[in-house]
Amino acid sequence: MDSPPPLRADQLRRRLVTPAGPLSRLVVVDRTGSTNDDVLAGLRDDPDAWPTGALLLADHQTAGHGRAGRTWVSAPRTSLTGTFVVRPGPGSGGLGWLPLVVGLGVVRALRTAAGVQAWLKWPNDVLVHQPGGRGSAARRKVAGILAQTTPDGAAVAVGVGLNVTQRADQLPVPTATSLALTRDLYYQRGRADGICTDRPALLVATVTALAEVVGRWCAGGAGLADEVAQVCTTLGCQVGVELPGGARLVGRAVRLADDGALVVADADGERPVRAGDVVHLVK
User: Mean per-residue pLDDT for 260-264?
Assistant: First the structure.
């Protein structure tokens, strides 16, 4: 099998960096441990070099971060893994909304550019529909988001990892998928759905969508809560939540709170969840 082509920084800059596009700076590296770590270090050492709208993109990430300290490795040239710089202003929406808003942007990019049925899972995963799947296998994780704030709170490094062409043996967990694997499932069922796996095209669509929703979040976030709720497949589900400290909450996810927390209702009433691992039990 031919090796996937590398991302071409010069071509991407012509399309994505101002004045042609929404980015202020684009750095593409062949390999790194974690783009979030690199951007946070850059913001510490030389913040002027990482303005709002800067993006660091890696063709191969060897120690990417997830929530709760998890790490993962992406196979070379099979994903879109990068970190954006966001500087919240005094009128920005709450930080609890930022991963959800970024998830909304990724969902929109995948629906329009990749041609897949994409959904947001609270608080920071993007799922895609798997034809023929049952229960939890009907939607699998294709992207994850991690927002990390600098110690002074002046900037946020927002990492996004999107699985594009990985084989099943290259995925970090059995519950994940890639756009290529999803496309193959459609083909196996005789449907010639035109699911896009072209990384530059997907990157352009994702950056464009994120610039729009994050820009609105920075301006106060009017209307974004309703738009996030419309694509959040967690709402309405019976869920199990593994809470920090080891406790478990089981109930129905009924709504999003004003700060972006997931409100779960059980026999004792409603409880806002701001951190925890969520499993969808019944829709």
Answer: 98
